[in-house]
Specification:
It is a single chain. It is globular and about 30 Å long. Strands 1-2-3-6-5-4 form a 6-stranded antiparallel barrel. The chain is mainly beta and 99 residues long. It has strands at residues 22-26, 38-45, 49-55, 65-70, 76-87, 90-97.
Length: 99
Amino acid sequence: MAKKKATAKRRNIRFTPDLGDYALISFDSNLDEFEFHVQGLILNESSSGCAVVLATTDGLKEGDECVTQIGRMDPMISTIIWRKDIDPDVIKIGLKYEV
C-alpha cells in the first residue's frame, strides 16, 4: 500500500507568546476608540494570526470581524477563521490579522 505524503496545513511558523501576554477583543470595528469586551489567553502566534482560548461568548462567530490587541501590539482588525467549543464555558478561536 502506497504511503500518502503529509501536506503542510500551516503556512506560517507558530511560536509561544511572551509570558504574561493576553488577547483583548472588541466586537466593534472601531480602531480609534478601542474598548475590549472579552479577554483570553494566547495559545500560539504567527505572523498572520493567533489562537486564543476564552470564556464562552455568543459575540464571536466564525467569519466575524473584530478588533484585537495581542500582547503589546497595537489594536488591529482581525477575522475569526475558526471556533471550537471546548466545553459549555470555554471556547478556542483562530484569528487572522487583516493587515
